Amino acid sequence: MTQNTLSSDDILAVLATVSDPVTGVSLASEGQIQSYVLKDGLLTLTLTIPREQAEILSSLCPSASRQLETLFGIQKANIILTAHRKTPLHVQSKASSLPLLSHVKTIIAIASGKGGVGKSTTAVHLAVGFGLAGLKTGLMDADIYGPSLHRMLGIQNKPKVIEGKIQPINKWGIKAISLGMMIHEKDAMIWRGPMVMGAINQLLRDVDWGMLDVLFIDLPPGTGDAQLSIIQKTHLTGAIIVSTPQDIALIDVRRAVSLFEKASIPIIGLIENMSYFCCPHCGNKTDIFGYTGARQEAEAIGVPFLGEIPLFADIRTSGDKGIPLLLDTPHSESTRSWQHIICTLIQSLRLPTHNETSH
Ligand SMILES: Nc1ncnc2c1ncn2[C@@H]1O[C@H](COP(=O)(O)OP(=O)(O)O)[C@@H](O)[C@H]1O
Ligand SMILES: [Mg+2]
Hints:
It contains 15 helices and 14 strands. Strands 4, 5, 8, 9, 10, 11, 12, 13 and 14 form a 9-stranded mixed β-sheet that branches. The chain has a 3-stranded mixed β-sheet with strand order 1-2-3. The protein has a two-stranded antiparallel sheet with strand order 6-7. Helix 5 crosses helix 14 and helix 8 runs parallel beside helix 9. By secondary structure, the protein is α/β, with parallel strands linked by helices. The chain folds into 2 domains: 90 residues, Fe-S cluster assembly (FSCA) (GMP Synthetase, Chain A, domain 3, 2-Layer Sandwich); 254 residues, 3-Layer(aba) Sandwich (Rossmann fold).
């Protein structure tokens, strides 16, 4: 089935089969199709619904998606509900109806309350770990004030632009794009409002990712307009918050958490970075920040705790060398700490790994 052969009537017929057992309402009876796009087996369907029905109708989405996935040619169906009533457009042209990053199944923002806590280091290692697990993974550096992922991945070349689309760079088994690949870092530092937004829009709109299982977005630190814009424009699956132990209890982390909560984006969990110092000679652990209990603190804020990454000298040197540790020293203790978090995450997101997909 292609975009041309899938009609809005087909979609409505399937949506009508899933209704609320108490009230009898369905996405077909209450919603209007605003747009739909079927591309590479991924259906992205946007429905406008009455705001007061939002709770009931969103609870129907998982089974409605599963029903849509039984249609020929649809491997995955994403239903996006919006409560703003617009003129219904039963079939829109592809260019105008394609929501940003619609061909990406899972989008995860990596966020932090402030800079320098290891957000980019985390983004690199999670992305490379997901790639090693056989998932088609992309990494977007949206930290327009301090793009660094190109350096951490050892990428020196500029991305090509083909037919107006920026081609991400393939490196270490993932696709990556960073503003740092396109402009001089000092230029980004002096950018102001509209230029920043323009750059973010371009990153979200003009990168040719192809079909991805997962896209990690390294957000700028903090909770300003740039972060909000990305949250509002993409269908984020969830956010991971990175914090150091001495910052975990601080207002910045809570503010980052509430930014996502306000936008109804689930917090996938909190990663504590630089949690303790691990002596490379004797293996002795030192709590140099004199603080333990990140797990409890995460619970107090109401977010799952995904794990901790100690302060290891080789984590910094790998960033400087541009070779992710998972590939450089696959059996080191620091690599094991990343692997532990990567496994937890893949399981909690219920993503199929290479072994499962190869059956
Ligand atoms: N667990 C760690 N152990 C040692 N160095 C680390 C660790 N995490 C991050 N770093 C180093 O700290 C610096 C800041 O990390 P970075 O990921 O750039 O932070 P952010 O993106 O939050 O600003 C980098 O030089 C990085 O290599
Ligand atoms: Mg960074």
